[in-house]
Design goal:
By secondary structure, the chain is an alpha/beta fold. 34% of the residues lie in helices and 26% in strands. The protein has a single domain (6-94), classed as Glutaredoxin. It has helices spanning 14-19, 35-50, 66-71, 98-106, and strands at 6-8, 25-30, 56-61, 79-84, 87-93. Strand 4 (79-84) and strand 5 form a beta hairpin. It is globular.
Length: 109
């Protein structure tokens, strides 16, 4: 079951949830038809649940938000962007381990 702590990002809430966030944000660019994205989903949910109050975890469906995917030059998914102070500070492409993702997010706290 998907975590209620994962924020679904759209064109309309992107700035308020990510650019203006006072805490670091892990953004998962994904699509429902992407096998590796679906495999990564439970890991994203676990991180979201573990980091409540410390960081945000968000998902952007690249099919629904093509302009955002283009803005950040997403050409392969899953693509994981780490934002701090509204700026992307690191990008990982492909499925990554919970340990790797958590360590990168912790480094921004």
């Amino acid at each position: 079951m998907a975590s209620t702590n994962v924020i679904t990002i759209t064109e309309s809430n992107f700035d308020s949830e990510i650019i203006h966030s006072t805490v670091p944000v892990l953004v998962d660019f994904w699509a429902p038809w992407c096998g590796p994205c679906r495999m990564l989903g439970p890991v994203i949910d676990e991180i979201a649940d573990a980091k409540v109050g410390q960081a945000k975890v968000a998902k952007i469906n690249v099919d629904d938000c093509q302009a955002l995917a283009a803005r950040y030059r997403i050409s392969s998914i899953p693509a994981l962007l780490f934002f701090k102070n509204g700026e992307p500070v690191e990008t990982l492409v492909g499925a990554a381990s919970k340990t790797t993702l958590t360590a990168k997010l912790d480094a921004l706290l």
